[in-house]
Write a structure and sequence with these properties.
Helices cover 83% and strands 0% of the residues. It is mainly alpha-helical and 422 residues long. Helix 3 packs antiparallel against helix 4.
Length: 422
């Protein structure tokens, strides 16, 4: 059986040569293009690798510089925070001292008022508006003025402490943010291409909300530090003013205390001199009264002694009137008896007048003695009150207990120490 051959296209030899040439030419062209691409890709790969590495190196350097900047400001803020804490402690101590000084002014105030109240117990002529009373009123005014100054300094210290606390809180918040930022940047600096935590992130090129410029970042920290420095400077000036006020008020109060006690000593001396003078006058007056009473008794006795002589003379005169007739003669006996009676009457009247005058003088002496005794009682009472006030004022020279001494006293630690030493 014969096989049928399928007819096929026949090409000319030229077509065959052309086809071979075309294939060869295309192969060479494709190889040239491929070679060009390979060269360009190698160049691009090398270029991009180098660019990536240099970019990564530059960013590592930038991160390192940024970390250094953050650490620098962190150290500055930490030092500023330490200074703030120290200044707050110092100002708090000054405020506590001012409050203690203010509390301590209650004792002088109470003492001055107690002295003024006690001196109201003076009586009669001794209730005088003397130098002591003027100095006591001045002392009360000085104490009130000191208390106002100290109270004002306490208020200023409280306000300044609030400002320092605000500045401190701002520094702490800034430090907290810088610690977080420092940790983040250090972690980013430590990341490498082989770190396990790297990955693609969605929209990594976005600008976070609230971003600021480096200048704003530095200005913010600088503002916080400058504000803290300004508040610390103000606090230092206030502490100096507080210490000056403490010293000034203490000096004013001490000067007024000395002036008041000098007035007291002077007044006590004057009162003691007046009391001594009154006692001397009392002694002399009592002696004079005793002498005058003796003289009065002597005058009364003299008057009584004139009674019988008067009776005798008058009896003689009366009996001689009974002589008879011509014997009733006005002889020298008659004249002598008459003169004797007249002389006795005149003597009695003179003695009675002197007795009246002596009794009047005795009344005057007794009245004066009563006035002396009364005034002496006033002086004794005034001396007692002023001496009591001086004893009361001894409290002002006792050093007040500090807070630590007060705590030791209240807790009994001092007694335990004494027992241990014993």
């Amino acid at each position: 059986m014969a096989t049928q051959v399928k007819p096929s296209t026949r090409f000319a030899p030229s077509d065959w040569f052309t086809s071979n040439y075309t294939i060869s030419t295309n192969a060479e062209r494709q190889r040239d293009a491929s070679h060009q691409i390979r060269q360009e890709s190698r160049f691009l790969r090398n270029e991009t690798d180098n660019k990536s590495k240099w970019d990564q190196h530059d960013n590592n350097t930038r991160l390192s510089d940024r970390v250094d900047d953050i650490r620098k400001w962190k150290e500055i803020l930490e030092k500023c925070l330490a200074d703030l804490d120290r200044e707050i402690a110092n100002l708090s101590e000054s405020k506590d001292q001012t409050e203690l000084a203010l509390e301590a002014k209650n004792v002088p105030s109470d003492v001055a008022i107690e002295c003024l109240t006690s001196r109201e117990g003076r009586q009669s002529i001794d209730l005088v508006a003397d130098e002591v009373e003027a100095q006591l009123h001045k002392e009360v005014e000085v104490i009130e003025g000191c208390k106002k100054q100290l109270q004002q300094k306490c208020s200023e210290a409280f306000e300044q402490l609030c400002l320092l606390q605000e500045a401190r809180q701002q520094i702490i918040m800034d430090l907290q943010d810088k610690n977080i930022a420092l940790g983040i940047d250090v972690d980013q600096y430590n990341l490498t291409e082989r770190s396990p935590l790297i990955s693609y992130k969605p929209d990594s090129l976005r600008v976070p909300k609230g971003s600021v410029t480096p200048q704003n970042w530095e200005d913010f920290s600088r503002y916080n530090k400058e504000r803290a420095d300004a508040e610390m400077n103000a606090s230092t000036r206030l502490r100096e003013a507080i210490h000056h006020t403490l010293q000034q008020t203490a000096n004013d109060l001490e000067a007024q205390r000395l002036a008041t006690e000098y007035a007291y000593r002077k007044r006590i001396h004057e009162t003691e001199r007046a009391k001594g003078e009154l006692e001397w006058q009392k002694q002399n007056t009592e002696e004079e009264i005793a002498t005058l009473e003796d003289d009065i008794r002597g005058i009364e006795q003299s008057i009584r002694d004139k009674i019988n002589p008067t009776k005798l003379a008058q009896t003689r005169l009366e009996n001689r009137t009974y002589r008879p007739n011509v014997e009733l003669c006005r002889d020298h006996v008659q004249y002598g008896l008459t003169d004797e009676v007249k002389q006795l009457d005149a003597t009695r009247k003179g003695l009675e007048e002197k007795l009246r005058q002596a009794k009047h003088a005795l009344d005057g002496l007794e009245n004066n003695l009563h006035r002396i005794n009364e005034d002496l009682g006033f002086k004794i009472n005034s001396l007692m009150l002023d001496n009591r006030c001086m004893d009361t004022r001894k409290k002002l020279t006792i050093r007040p207990l500090s807070s630590s001494d007060r705590n030791v006293s209240l807790t009994g630690i001092q007694r335990e120490r004494s027992q241990m030493l014993a």
